[in-house]
Design a protein that fits this description.
GO molecular function, one term: porin activity
Helix content: 10-25%
Keywords: Signal
Number of domains: 1
Pfam families: Porin_4 (PF13609)
Organism: Rehaibacterium terrae
CATH superfamily: monomeric porin ompg
Protein name: Ax21 family sulfation-dependent quorum factor
CATH class: Mainly Beta
Largest sheet: 10 strands, antiparallel, barrel
Strand content: over 45%
Distance between the termini: 35 Å
């Protein structure tokens, strides 16, 4: 009886174990965001992605920053598309392009675009990592190259904790928060 229950439990858990190691392009994440430097610039963000077939995805995000010791708020959002190509069972080559806009209270909006390419992969069944190199430009945004690195630890196949750091022009942008994959 105990062996039968154990065998049934293991059989039921196999699909979840397999899903935990797959890369998902369907997710929503939210959390704390901060830009390094002085004065303190921090806030909250909400990001997401939706798979468009097996090799394409749409993504976007919104972040609301507060600048300390001032009445300045920054509303930043982006919207784009990406292409993902399998490099093996646990890794993808990812290329993305997006429109971005920042509205600084009391000032005009800053419009631009970015593109990035990188690798995203499962390092263990519950730990994903990624690294990107990117370029951003626009009418109101200086052209800059940047690097971005991040990771996600999956507590379950559908719930994890993600952390991301973007290195641009001597500054860093940090993000940490929960991710729900579907």
């Amino acid at each position: 009886m105990k062996r039968t229950l154990l065998a049934l439990a293991l059989t039921a858990a196999l699909p979840f174990a397999a899903q935990a190691s797959e890369l998902s392009y369907n997710y929503i994440e939210g959390g704390y965001s901060r830009v390094s430097g002085s004065p303190k610039v921090d806030g909250w963000g909400l990001k997401g992605s939706v798979a468009l077939g097996s090799n394409f995805h749409a993504f976007g995000g919104y972040t609301q920053y507060d600048v300390s010791r001032s009445n300045i708020d920054i509303d930043y959002w982006n919207l784009g598309v990406g292409y993902n190509h399998s490099l093996g069972q646990n890794a993808d080559l990812v290329a993305r392009v997006a429109y971005q806009r920042a509205k600084v209270s009391g000032f005009s909006s800053l419009d631009g675009w970015f593109t990035e390419v990188g690798v995203r992969g499962m390092l263990t069944p519950n730990f994903e990592g990624y690294i990107f190199a990117g370029y951003e430009n626009g009418d109101d945004i200086d052209s800059e190259f940047y690097g971005r690195v991040g990771a996600q630890y999956k507590f379950t196949p559908n719930f994890g904790l993600v952390a991301d750091v973007k290195f641009v022009d001597g500054d860093q942008e940090y993000f940490i928060g929960p991710r729900i994959s579907f």
